[in-house]
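Hi R.,

As promised on Friday, here is the backbone we talked about, encoded as structure tokens. Could you run it through your design pipeline when you get a chance and send me back a sequence?
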């Protein structure tokens, strides 16, 4: 699912690209030992909170892909 996040970060709609870039950065920090797992999961969940995401997401397929990718990368 990292590949999906990278694709979204490079060519997704602005709202998805921004969140995908943040998810990749958070994952990199976690993989480097800079975050505990609970912190990592909490930060990843904040990226896909319903309220803010629902206001910005204009494509349900992209929204579903982003949510699924983030959840799988964070083992949620």
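Update: got your reply. Pasting your designed sequence below so it's all in one thread:
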């Amino acid at each position: 699912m990292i590949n999906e996040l990278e694709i979204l970060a490079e060519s997704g709609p602005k709202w998805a690209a921004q969140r995908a870039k943040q998810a990749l950065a958070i994952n990199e920090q976690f993989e480097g030992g800079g975050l505990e797992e609970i912190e990592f999961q909490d930060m990843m969940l904040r990226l896909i909170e319903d309220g803010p995401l629902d206001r910005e997401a204009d494509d349900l397929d992209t929204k579903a892909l982003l949510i699924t990718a983030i959840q799988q990368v964070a083992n949620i």
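One thing I noticed while checking it: The chain has a mean pLDDT of 95.

Thanks again,
M.
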